[in-house]
Amino acid sequence: MKLDWKPVKTKDTPLPDPSHPEWERALINRLVLEYLADQRRRQRWSLILKLGVLLYLIGLLIVASLPAVTDLTKINEEHTALIEVNGILAPEADASAERIIAALRAAFENKHVKGIILAINSPGGSPVQAGMIYDEIKRLKEKYQKDKGRDLPVYAVAIDLCASGGYYVAAAADAIYVNPASLVGSIGVRLSSFGFQKAMEELGIERRLLTAGTNKGILDPFSPLPEPQRAFLQRVLERLHQQFIAAVKAGRGERLKGGDELFSGLFWSGDQAVELGLADGLGSASQVAREQIGAEKIVEYSKKRDLLDALTRRFGAMMTLGFIEALGLGGEGLARY
Hints:
Number of domains: 2
Shape: flat
Helix content: 40-55%
Radius of gyration: 33 Å
Order of helices and strands: HEHEHEHEEHHEHEHEH
Structural class: alpha/beta
Organism: Caldichromatium japonicum
């Protein structure tokens, strides 16, 4: 039989007459072609949408990674320099000594700065980081006095939390101002770890730890902690504690009124801290700038990481932490203010 229609190859190919014996096959052919064409359209639009979202995110990342546009050297009017001490004091954190000290130096070098405010919202952290910031504040103030013949005041303003290492930093300031509800103090040192020895014995797990050095395995969570090692660790903590106390006494002097309880690790509300001499008064950063420094204009000097650097460092830190924990070398055994 001679066909009077052509096989359906495109949706534009005409269908045969419904009375034709091949009409049903041609109709199915047409439906399949239209379905495939619709799927291709959907895939194209999906690809375009995904590409658009990707380009948008890349654009946001590039914009966020650009350095701050404020050039501190071009500010030619008197102002108050604001430096944030936000979060845990640690080498790779936003509140690292490196970043805080860089901001402090920039503020002390700007001749238009009338005073500096440390806006502290920190639970503490590394004793080394806290000590470095404290020492640098003292050094910069002494150098400024020697070079300029006058003092550049440094004030600490507690936000939510000014505790432990955060208070260590604040103690270097000329005066400390708090909110009535701020938590202030916690002058002490802590070192924490875990002991899994008995759990391992019950599970029948044998710990195989090889060391060169009698005390090299100290604070290993899967080994017992002998009394001589415990006593040694306590002496280390006491020494760090005395360093902390000495710094606070040097910074606060005769203003302290609470006796030895101030150095017990307790913390107090902001209004209590004022009564105990841990703080000098109630006030916010804007109040201190206006009433104490006399320069209401506030310029932020904090050295912040750009988004790309922050994401890269955070990913690296997560990978490192996971590796350390996998080896059973977690950072719980580090002394912290």
